[in-house]
Amino acid sequence: MSGTELNDRAQLLLKNLVERYIRDGQPVGSRTLSRDEQVALSPATVRNVMADLEDLGLIHAPHTSAGRVPTSKGYRLFIDNLLTIKPLNRGTVSTIEKQIGSSVDSNQLLVSASRQLSDITSMAGVVMLPKHEVAALRQVEFLPLSSRRVLVILVINEREVQNRIIHTSRDYSPAELQQIANYLTQLCAGQDLRQARERLLREMDEARATMNQLMADAIEMAAQAFATESSENDYLIEGQTNLMSYADMGDMERLRKLFEAFNQKRDILHLLDQSLHSNGVQIFIGEESGYEVLGDCSVVSAPYKVDDKVIGVLGVIGPTRMAYEKVIPIVDMTARLLGNSLNQLK
Amino acid sequence: MSGTELNDRAQLLLKNLVERYIRDGQPVGSRTLSRDEQVALSPATVRNVMADLEDLGLIHAPHTSAGRVPTSKGYRLFIDNLLTIKPLNRGTVSTIEKQIGSSVDSNQLLVSASRQLSDITSMAGVVMLPKHEVAALRQVEFLPLSSRRVLVILVINEREVQNRIIHTSRDYSPAELQQIANYLTQLCAGQDLRQARERLLREMDEARATMNQLMADAIEMAAQAFATESSENDYLIEGQTNLMSYADMGDMERLRKLFEAFNQKRDILHLLDQSLHSNGVQIFIGEESGYEVLGDCSVVSAPYKVDDKVIGVLGVIGPTRMAYEKVIPIVDMTARLLGNSLNQLK
DNA sequence: CATTAGCACTCGGATTGAGTGAGTGCTAAT
DNA sequence: ATTAGCACTCACTCAATCCGAGTGCTAATG
Q1: Chain B span 37-56 residues with beta carbon within 7 Å of strand C
Q2: Neighbours of A264 (CB within 10 A)
Q3: With 60 as the cut, is the pLDDT of residue A230 above it?
């Protein structure tokens, strides 16, 4: 057992052990394993193998006379090599399809996707908001509010609307604002928000002398309005409360930290970002994720695509001890269905 | 002790008992109370009085030989008659002022208000979204999306912007849409959304024969677009996780139900609605609220006003055993400050 | 007559110790 | 290589016990 390869017997035992542990939540001992039909071995032999597995860091005994429990490394090996994925139940697919299909706008779509994930798996479902790599500006509207405050409406990508309020250095009449908006719309339509902003700033520097005051004002305002606030960098989460039912989530304090991480969003977002360039379902087990708060959680994630281009990630978060063989296909399928639906909406 | 009035001594003892219990979280016994300087009585006497208080249902012993704990009724009497409210700490006021004052749009304002409430009290802070009793339509814009889907932008009340997507029976050209939007803007500007909708529908019935097709289409669309989705019926909540630190919140299951109620929003909203017509701080203690999930929670709420008109409610939710004398002025002050700030933004 | 001292009693919580059972590692036999 | 046997470990459960805080009642007291 030189560390690199596990013989068949060891693999079989590990597989059985992990499956049992996931099912019952109890450390599993040699007797239990040896009673299994597929394992035609005496407890003693099983013990020997288990000792080896423990040396390899795949399983571990919570205390001297308890059974063994998989470590993260054990889960990893199990998932990568031993897991037999359950084909998706017919009904489940159509449930997801129906729910997701009935959404009319893209936001509703994302909400129902995360809700589906959470409902079906009884864990927490997350859906990252889609990244529009092309943020093509379509139209700019200005509306005067009270003194020196102007509402800016940006229509982006045929679909998305952003509202911002900017402060101006003097009051403008509705007519002036209209004029400025038209000027900007015409100037920037079809361009990326970031690029448009940079180009405008350059232009202002170069042509400062020649342009009229209103144009200068317009560009000034645009610079403010286009400040790319990243509403993109965000996600939806549903069913957090499901996690409160799992005993293995440890004490209240851990759970609290976890929930705070959900609110903070930063860490979770970084984690999801890592799946952005993966090709299919990806799994982070416990501390593997690199985030303390996710200590005894696993994250099963998958990128979703529109036009064969990955634009976001979705997944579920739950206890390490979860039914991977069911969760993986669910996440996979949901990602596909979400992609399809987004495509149709486009 | 005929039930209606408590003599001074009994009141003093109740006051002390509640204060002590709130401070220490332990049932308080006769010895402890008699040791208090203000109470110059022997434990035995205290016991007699406590027996009376228990008969009145104001306090209650968790078990034979524990001290006494206030009941909801006891808390109620304490709060209504015995509580000496702490004047607000100077620093606290300016903290709230600073935080709230630095918000530029109304939504940010509400967020920072609820965050302040939660931060300062270490409980959960809620802020109901303001009810705009006058939802005066200001401008309507239509933008064509892909086939038969149209983005509607409604600007309401100088400040608020709503985006909706409607489905049309055929494709319209941008020019047509522009025309329709202009027509509607001109027709409905300044009117309440609901009224406008009704009037339009009536008009359509009456003048169906005489109007041209485009007008008819316009009204048809407006009917769809104005469908008053009540984004009003909602609230923000911050610092839910704070509640997880309180031991008295009972077991995980209760807490889970509570969190689900926060997500559901319905019950909490009903409760807050009740404060909408109260004049100042209102307090719901435990089961008083009528909602099972709030079993061992209290809600301290206050309406906030713009132009002397109540438009919303804010408050905190925490364990029944909270420092009311501090929380009450905080909620009160935050409501005032939020009102002021909203006024300035207007 | 209100207050208090004294006393017997109750009950929850912490501590202890024995018993149980699932599990282990090691060794010797197969 | 596998297995049977054995001594050992250790968490968990349960009952017994003790302790202390608190109570209600009664009789004494100013």
Answers
A1: 40-42, 44-45, 48
A2: 11
A3: no
